[in-house]
Amino acid sequence: MARVIVVGGGIGGLAAALAITRQGHRVVVLEREAAFAELGAGMQLAPNGIHALDRLGLGDRVRESAVHIDELRFMDGVTGRHVVSMPLTGAYRRRFGNPYVVAHRGDLYRLLLRACRARADIELRPGCRATGYRQDGRSATAVLDTGERVTGDALIGADGVHSAIRRQLVGDGPPRVAGITVFRSVIPMARVPERLRWNRVTWWAGPGRHFVHYPIGGGAYLNLAPSIENGVTEEFADVPVSAEQVLDAFTPLGAAARRLLALGADWRSWVLIDRDPVPGWTDGRVTLLGDAAHPMLHYAAQGACQSLEDAVFLGDLLACPPAEFGLRFRLYNVGRRERTARMQHIARESTKLWHPAGAAAVARNAMLSAFSATELHDRVAWMHGARDFGPAVEGTAPQGVAG
What we know:
Elements (H helix, E strand, L loop, with lengths): L2 E5 L3 H11 L4 E5 L11 E4 L1 H9 L3 H7 L1 E2 L2 E6 L5 E6 L3 H6 L4 E4 H13 L4 E4 L4 E6 L4 E5 L4 E4 L1 E4 L6 H6 L6 E13 L11 E7 L2 E8 L4 E9 L9 E2 L2 H7 L5 H7 L6 E7 L7 E2 L2 E3 L14 H15 L7 H25 L1 H4 L3 H12 L3 H12 L19
Parallel strand pairs: 1-2, 1-12, 2-8, 5-14, 12-20
Antiparallel strand pairs: 3-7, 4-7, 5-6, 9-10, 10-11, 13-16, 13-18, 14-15, 15-16, 17-18, 19-20
C-alpha cells in the first residue's frame, strides 16, 4: 500500500483521492483554505463527466439530484430568433449512455467530500498551503508555507490554475488573461416569467458578447452567466458589480435576453484566464491534474469533466506498486495531453462562433441552422461520448468497471 499526497482539495483533487484509494492506496489531501469548500454557481456535466462519476460510484446520486437538460439552444441575441437546438433526450442519451445535466458546483463538491470523509484511507487536511515539492527517487514531499513537509510515495498537484506545483514543475509563469469578463447571478426560478422557464442551456449570441442561462438546484434557481470581450488585461475574481453595469454592457442584445438579465441580482464578476497547452506535466513521482495541468476557459463546459476524467484514468494506472509510479505518471501524461489540449483550444475558439456581428453573424446563423440533430451529435461525440479516457495500458483495471 502506497501513500499518495494530493495537493488541492477541489473537485479534481477529491475525485483523484477516491480513484486512487480504490486501488488500495492511502491518500492525504492538502487544502490551502481553512475549510474544504467549493465556490461558484452553476456547472454543466456532459455524459463523459457522468461516466467518470459512475466509475467513482457517484453517478446515480448525480443523476438523481441534477437537472436533466432537454436541449442546448442557440439564439441570435440581437434579433431574438432561434437559430438551432441540439436535442439531449432520446437519441442523444441512447448514443452517449447518460443524460446531459446541470447542477450547482457546491452540490457536486459536497457529494465528493462526503464520499472522501466516509473512507478511512483518505485523510483531509485543511489549512495546508503548498509552495512546492521535493523528491528523491523513492518518495515525493509537499513543502508547506509553514515549513512543514508532508511526504508520500508520490504527489499530485491538483491545486488549480495558480498551482504552486505547476510553477515549479512547468515554470510557465502566470496564467493568460483572455480579455473577457464574465458576470454571474443566481436567481429563484419563481422570479422568471413562465414563458422563459426553459429546461435548456440557452445561449444568446451577440457582437463581442453572449449570455448563457440554465436551471440549477433541481430547477429551483436560474443561473445567469453573460460574458463580454472588453479587453481587460488584469486578473480579478469574485468582484461585486451593479445590475446597471451588467445591463449597460449588454445593450446590443435584444429585448428577450435583456429581460432575463434584468432579473439578475447580487452580480459578481471574474476575468477569464487559462494557459497554453503543454506536452509535459510530470516530473518523476510528481504530476499535475485538472486545472493545474490543463486549465481551460469554461466555454466548452468541460473543465470539471476533464478533471474527473483525469482522476479516473490516473486511478486506473496506479493499480501498481509504488516503484512503478513514475512510469505510470508518464503514461497518464501521454494518455491525457492530446484530448485535454484539444479541449483547451476548442474553448478558446468558441468565441468566434458566438461573438460575430453583422454579415458574419448572419452567415453563422445560416451555417448552424443547416445542421440536423444527428450531425450536431456527431460534432460533439468526441467530447460527450468518451468512456475510456485515454489509451489502454496493460495491467490496469478495465475501463468502465469500478474498483
